[in-house]
Amino acid sequence: MLVVMQSHATEEQVRAVCQRIESLGLKAHPIPGAARTAIGITGNSGAIDIGSLEAMPGVIECIPVSKPYKLVSRDLKAENTIVHVPTPLGEVSFGGKAIAIVGGPCAIETREQAFTIAGHIKAAGARLFRGGAYKPRTSPYAFQGLGEPGLQILANIRDEFGLGIITEAIDNESLDLVEKYADVIQIGARNMQNFSLLKHAGRSRKPVLLKRGMSATLDEFLMAAEYVMSEGNYNVILCERGVRTFSDFTRNTLDLSIIPAVQRRSHLPIVVDPSHGTGKRHKVLPLSRAGVAVGADGLLIEVHHDPDRALSDGPQSILPEEFAHLVREVREIAGVIGRTIN
Ligand code: PEP
Ligand code: MN
């Protein structure tokens, strides 16, 4: 259910409607839009008696939302959500005119490795640095990440270079630590349906970058975002990172057609990860170009100065000079579609 407020409704009127909703044992999600505030209602298992809400001052109408996802839906908010990420180098936003570029290694391996790559990411003009301190690996014998010391290296990178930090939480324990150190909490493909982790991230005040599960449908992807939002965290950035198909020439199949499909259904920003989406270094540039052309709000790129010796995802990591070239090219493509790079 969605309560649409009049454009001139006062804050008190919005608050009174939220209180009435909460008094019914439901949760109210006031979402301000450009023209008016809409209040999403969750927590109901059946129909809500709308009569008393519709009669309240400042309310235009109550609309039943038939889709399974409510808070992520464009029905709730017609205009794009812009997720703002403050960094020492200035604010980076996802979902506005500017396209955000995130670069960095798959995993934080050593302080020297991470600092070397961070220097290149900054020099190329990006303002967000990625790198896992907790790695969800297929094999229990593969490098699992440095854990909290890796997060400390990331915090030092923010101090030293001014870059904002995106890093993954793989479970409830790591989420508490990641939240402390990172500017954006990443939830990986393997955890897209880890519902307790999604709810936990929903109680954080840090933005969440939610990756599509490797076999997730569009509805499942949006419902995962709904889990985060239903707990009150409305700063969700979606990420397409490729899905499993029968295709045998690529690690995953990057499903770029999901970008306009998401944008039609949801107000949330969506970025593309061509590194995991292809698994091959030579495919990262062409699919980055395509991702920007198709309308992505950002790119997440794995970069390593010595990929042959990387502890994870070396084959898909591009070299620093390739990253700089990529940023130059996508800047031009962004210009053609009336966007910029931030
Ligand atoms: C990553 O970004 O390093 C990662 C593990 O990604 P995904 O969850 O998409 O596999
Ligand atoms: Mn990786």
Structure described in brief:
This protein is an alpha/beta fold and 342 residues long. 35% of the residues lie in helices and 19% in strands.
Structure characterization notes:
The protein has helices at residues 11-23, 51-54, 111-123, 148-161, 172-181, 195-202, 218-230, 258-265, 274-278, 281-294, 320-336; strands spanning 2-5, 27-32, 37-42, 59-63, 83-85, 92-94, 98-104, 128-130, 164-168, 184-187, 208-211, 236-240, 270-272, 298-302, 340-341. With 342 residues, it is α/β, with parallel strands linked by helices. The strands form 3 sheets. Strands 7, 8, 9, 10, 11, 12, 13, 14 and 15 form a 9-stranded parallel sheet that branches. Helix 3 packs parallel to helix 11. The structure holds phosphoenolpyruvate and manganese (II) ion (MN). Manganese (II) ion binds at residues 106, 276, 302, 312-313. Manganese (II) ion (MN) binds at residues 106, 276, 302, 312-313.
